[in-house]
Amino acid sequence: MEVAANLKVRPAVRGDISQLDELISRGHLVHRHMDWRAPLEWIDYSPFFVLEKNGVIISVMACPPDPTSIGWIRVFGIDASISVGIAWENLWQAIKPVLPSFSISRVAVITMGQWFHEILENSDFTYHQDIIVLNWDYDKSIVNDSDSDLPMRKMNESDLPLVENLDGLAFEPIWQNSTASLSKAFKMAAYSTVITQGKDIIAYQVSTQNLMGGHLARLAVHPEYQGRGIGKALVIDLMRKLGAKGAQRITVNTQSDNPASLALYRTLGFEATGEKYPVYVYDAKP
What we know:
Elements: E1 7-11, H1 17-26, E2 29-32, E3 48-53, E4 56-62, E5 70-72, E6 75-78, H2 84-95, E7 106-110, H3 114-121, E8 126-137, H4 140-143, E9 152-154, H5 160-170, H6 179-188, E10 191-197, E11 200-209, E12 213-221, H7 230-244, E13 249-255, H8 259-267, E14 271-283
Parallel strand pairs: 5-7, 12-13
Antiparallel strand pairs: 1-3, 2-6, 3-4, 4-6, 7-14, 8-13, 8-14, 9-10, 10-11, 11-12
């Protein structure tokens, strides 16, 4: 770690937004988390640190918790004036000791660049799993599959607390969503649906739309109802909805070590694109 009088690590403040926007937009190397919120939307949440050289911000790192106890690295940006290794060491070594004060027990990161992959391979992070990308090209035979009689309807904003509860049951902690994140996802979604059982929500999906079709951003089924075709019904309904709007393809990301998810998508004709993004985690000491 470089120790120099002209390097300073400190928490980011709102007055840094202009410099940070420039760094994140045009930085030499920038990691952005796959998130419903842009990096600077986290400026009021901690830990969110900057590295200055002679008063100029040359690097930034933020990993505020969401949901509680999980701190995804939302952004790590580096200016060309400093090496990646020195920027990482200064920022990470400043953030690591304060994690318990923000109730963060685990920090996670999805690596999308070889430069960051190499940093994590040589750090105190450990490999957790891969995120893989699957693609479905429009297939009329699947879209016209038999109708489902499941009680499916569009998601309402008032459903979000129940959806968050379902998220907590269906996913391991690092993949759970808070109500705030789900609210953001709901507002940005092109199509979102739920399946109910009495007053309970037992499954949901949230999807976005793009020029070629759509992206299935989130699909969850209550553990007690898995294996009954509920997830399949939600995806086929999505295929029909986007197909009616001219969609040519739908993409989805899933974990490489989730056989149930992979089996569902492959049954529906999704194929792996070959893209994969390693996930690394750091378990904070209490």
